[in-house]
């Protein structure tokens, strides 16, 4: 009993813990981190499912708060040994203003860093993104690259720009002295396109297909590969990196790691069909049904409509100039840096990841009917 009491001594804080990725990180920590004494979940919007977590041996503390409010962040961080910072505005559809995206993703991250320094939290894991690297505004492909692959990371869009700045702040903070004199140890994880249970975009595409009579129309060449990674493996990598960061600060502090698993390299649409197909949808066309110039015109028209309608309503379709360019630029990673640095191996095989995602979609479908 004494061993287990000694073992359960750590306090973790997960910002954005009620989000798509955040919820999986929370559940993975409760399953895979035996040293957890308290798990704090900080989010603007707390989920009702948190209540079910409060019956276990770990103290689960739900904190409704805003990362843009420094005092709220400091109060949540105080006393935590590890912070996993996933909170962010994931918006490439023009829903939020560039200022709001920057406020949440950059200033919010600054507030988390300063809270760690001021309150003495020594370990910070940041959920960055592949977009910190690319695709860049020139549409240069990134074909099975790794953390050391040279690539001209040039961004104009608010979201990737904010993620790049936030990641830079986190990495630069590595080594700063926190309250009590110990060094802050930070690292950043760069997931590619995350899929799995709770993925809102996949849900939106599914319902779009249902509205079109069970059909989706190919818009992206099958040859354009887009890296994808299962949410359970991304969550597992967060848990593992947070644990190993405490053991190997000299090696891992200030490092970035792409999140990867055995998910196959496919175009964004073909990959989605791995899950949408078993749910009854069909992808029409072996090549894009519309020429690229017409898709660009439609994307630009969507952007214009969004701007014109903004005073009345939010019009934010999937197709806009940025998402079209992104979807049409190959971006895949092939790396083993996480395996070399902290022994990461995917927890879920491709088959398991696919099956779990399909089951989620089928359950979503049956509840919608
Ligand atoms: N979804 C992907 O494909 C993907 C890929 C790479 C990286 N990421 C990164 O992973 C993280 C989580 O992404 P996600 O897909 O789970 O998004 P999500 O929108 O589902 O989750 C984000 C969470 O952050 C919370 N949040 C937003 N603004 C906040 C604020 N001001 N204060 C406190 N909480 C706030 C939201 O309420 C939400 O619960 C983000 O940092 C994102 O950039 C996502
Ligand atoms: C209408 C089509 C032409 C485009 C539809 C697909 C489009 C919505 C998809 C394609 C690529 C997707 C992004 C990619 O998976 C990676 C990321 C990085 C991550 O940090 C946030 C999500 C994001 C931007 C995906 C959003 C949806 C995209 C653009």
Automatic annotation (TrEMBL):
The chain crosses the membrane at residues 289-309. This is 3 beta-hydroxysteroid dehydrogenase type 7. It is found in: Endoplasmic reticulum membrane. GO terms for molecular function: cholest-5-ene-3-beta,7-alpha-diol 3-beta-dehydrogenase activity. Its EC number is 1.1.1.181. It is a multi-pass membrane protein. Keywords: Endoplasmic reticulum, Lipid metabolism, Membrane, NAD, Oxidoreductase, Steroidogenesis, Transmembrane, Transmembrane helix. Pathway: Steroid biosynthesis; Lipid metabolism; steroid biosynthesis. It catalyses: 7alpha-hydroxycholesterol + NAD(+) = 7alpha-hydroxycholest-4-en-3-one + NADH + H(+); (24S)-7alpha-dihydroxycholesterol + NAD(+) = (24S)-7alpha,24-dihydroxycholest-4-en-3-one + NADH + H(+); (25R)-cholest-5-en-3beta,7alpha,26-triol + NAD(+) = (25R)-7alpha,26-dihydroxycholest-4-en-3-one + NADH + H(+); 7alpha,25-dihydroxycholesterol + NAD(+) = 7alpha,25-dihydroxy-4-cholesten-3-one + NADH + H(+). Belongs to the 3-beta-HSD family. Its main location: endoplasmic reticulum. The keyword Zinc does not apply. The 3-beta-HSD enzymatic system plays a crucial role in the biosynthesis of all classes of hormonal steroids. HSD VII is active against four 7-alpha-hydroxylated sterols. Does not metabolize several different C(19/21) steroids as substrates. Involved in bile acid synthesis. Plays a key role in cell positioning and movement in lymphoid tissues by mediating degradation of 7-alpha,25-dihydroxycholesterol (7-alpha,25-OHC): 7-alpha,25-OHC acts as a ligand for the G protein-coupled receptor GPR183/EBI2, a chemotactic receptor for a number of lymphoid cells. GO terms for cellular component: endoplasmic reticulum membrane; lipid droplet. GO terms for biological process: B cell chemotaxis; steroid biosynthetic process. It comes from the Eukaryota. It comes from Myotis lucifugus. Residues 13-283 form the 3-beta hydroxysteroid dehydrogenase/isomerase domain.
């Amino acid at each position: 009993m004494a061993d287990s009491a000694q073992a359960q001594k750590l306090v973790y804080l997960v910002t954005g813990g009620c989000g798509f990725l955040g919820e999986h990180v929370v559940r993975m920590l409760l399953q895979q981190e035996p040293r957890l004494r308290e798990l704090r979940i900080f989010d603007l919007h707390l989920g009702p499912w948190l209540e079910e977590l409060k019956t276990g041996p770990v103290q689960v503390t739900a904190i409704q708060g805003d990362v843009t409010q420094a005092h709220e962040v400091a109060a949540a961080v105080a006393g935590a040994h590890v912070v996993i910072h996933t909170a962010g505005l994931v918006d490439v559809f023009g829903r939020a203003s560039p200022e709001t995206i920057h406020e949440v993703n950059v200033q919010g991250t600054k507030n988390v860093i300063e809270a760690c320094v001021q309150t003495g939290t020594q370990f910070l894991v940041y959920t960055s993104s592949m977009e910190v690297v690319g695709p860049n505004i020139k549409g240069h492909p990134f074909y099975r690259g790794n953390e050391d692959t040279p690539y001209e990371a040039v961004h104009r869009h608010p979201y990737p720009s904010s993620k790049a700045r936030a990641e830079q702040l986190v990495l630069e903070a590595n080594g700063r002295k926190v309250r009590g004199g110990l060094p802050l140890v930070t690292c950043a994880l760069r997931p590619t396109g995350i899929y799995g249970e709770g993925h809102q975009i996949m849900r939106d595409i599914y319902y779009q297909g249902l509205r079109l009579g069970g059909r989706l129309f190919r818009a992206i060449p099958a040859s354009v590969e887009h890296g994808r990674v299962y949410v359970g493996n991304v969550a597992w990598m967060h848990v593992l990196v947070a644990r190993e960061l405490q053991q190997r600060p000299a090696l891992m502090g200030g490092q970035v790691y792409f999140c990867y698993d055995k998910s196959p390299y496919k175009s964004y649409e073909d990959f989605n069909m791995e899950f949408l197909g078993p749910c009854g949808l069909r992808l029409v066309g072996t090549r894009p049904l519309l020429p690229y110039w017409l898709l660009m015109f439609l994307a630009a028209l969507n952007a214009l409509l969004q701007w014109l309608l903004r005073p009345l309503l939010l019009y934010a379709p999937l197709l806009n100039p940025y998402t079209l360019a992104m979807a049409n630029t190959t971006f895949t990673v092939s790396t083993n840096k996480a395996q070399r640095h902290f022994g990461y191996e995917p927890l879920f095989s491709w088959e398991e990841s696919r099956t779990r995602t399909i089951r989620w979609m089928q359950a979503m479908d049956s509840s919608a009917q």
